Amino acid sequence: MEFYKILWLSVALILCSRAGAQSIPDHLARYIADQMLNNVVIVEGTRLDETPILGLGMIMARQGDLLWVATAGHVIFDQDHLLTLPYVPSVKVLTGKLRDGSRWAAALPPERTTDVDLAFLALKVPFGETGPDSWREGVEILEPKVGTKVRLAGLPDKIAYGGEGASISAVDTHGNIEFAGLMGVAGRSGAPVATKDGFVGIYVQSAGNRVVPMSVIKAVALGSNRPYGLSPTRAAPSAVRVCLVNSSGDAYMPQLIGPEVRAKPDKDGCVATLSGAHFLAAAPGTDCEPHEFSLSDAPVQTIRFKCSVDPEGVWVSAQSGYLSVKKLGENLWSVEGLSQSQYGQLNGLLRGAPPTMQLELRTPVGLAFFGSIVLQPQKLKGNLAGSAGILPIEVSR
After folding, report:
1. What DSSP string runs through 303-318?
2. Is residue 353 within a helix (H) or strand (E), and if so which, with residue range?
């Protein structure tokens, strides 16, 4: 029964998270807050001089049999080792106590950072001896807001919340956070500072820079090649069917490029793909808007696009050879080529705004042909009339 309760809460949590934090019911908010306490560790030990070590920490990742914990640097290292480098860890015994009451020894010498009051601790917590991890991923809050209510996740003798009624009073340009109404007590250094949605950092002192923000913890961990697993995981892409509609009124269809586009569009201009970023790749001389768009999780979607075509470039006719088009000015292009036509080399001007334009061509002996021609992304086609008859034009690129 307990399994199904947890399963239902997990499914409901996913659905509510998509709807936004404001829509989470109170009982689910309490469930999230309770689960966040599984990230909290009581750090205990003894230094070489027999002085005690007591504080709290936050699980930030698993790496094999190691659970990596972030805590305040002064919890583990004495003042001499905080101020001088290189340092030797002055630790005799160091353990981490998890929420279930189990206690685990440090597997590696603790590591202190140089610029902030922060240390990393690796506890040897084998998978086979603990069962599935219950600590939460995706609980980082990198941009905390002034006025947000916070509390400390952890007490000196047990893993529970305390410091109710406090709120964030200031966040400077470096991400440093100040609190109003939150005062620490001995043994609470290193405790995660929690909102109802996640952690904004770890508590370090009662005045001054009172918290090491999550943005700093993340940057320092990744910069020192330490594992970090508190970022929100991206949802898996969903299978979608997207239909492309050409608002230009012609039948041209650009190529759709996306994460899982495996076939050309069907007769309705639709193709199967996955949600996420997609691009429209048009033919040379063609510009289609939008260039880029993102598909949601909706199973069927429609994307309307519009393409503009520039006639400048080299076109080719299977019978008459090449045709070169060069821009001269606004809605004006020079045209020459088709030397294999029955009239030989042709020269002239192309005028107007696409798609329907006016083409004038003249032969070396002075014959003239005039008429409308339709410009498409990959085809230029029309019939020109002249004193010698009709001159069909059909070139592609």
Report:
1. EEEEEEE---EEEEET
2. none
Distances (CA, A) of 197 to 31, 144, 190, 286: 11, 11, 19, 47
Q: Taking residues 120-140, report their average pLDDT.
A: 80
Whole-angstrom Cα distance, residue 98 to residue 224? Answer: 25
pLDDT tens digits, residue range 302-336? 999 988 888 998 999 988 899 999 999 999 999 99
**pTM of the predicted structure, to 2 decimals:** 0.55
Rounded Cα gap, residues 144 and 150, in angstroms: 10
**Exposed, middle or buried, 79 (CB in 10 Å: 0-12/13-18/19+)?**
exposed
Instruction: Compute how many other C-beta atoms are within 10 angstroms of the C-beta atom of residue 227.
Output: 16
Burial of 164 per CB tally in 10 Å (0-12, 13-18, 19+): exposed
Q: With contact defined as beta carbons under 8 Å apart, do 51 and 59 qualify?
A: no
Q: Are 305 and 247 in contact (CB under 8 A)?
A: yes
Peptide bond into 227 cis (omega under 30): no
What one-character DSSP code corresponds to residue 259?
T
124-129 long-range contacts (CB < 8 A, ≥24 apart) are 124/65, 124/66, 125/62, 125/65, 125/66, 125/67, 125/98, 126/65, 127/65
Tell me the one-letter amino acid at 242: V
304 CB-near residues (< 8 Å, 6+ apart) = 245, 247
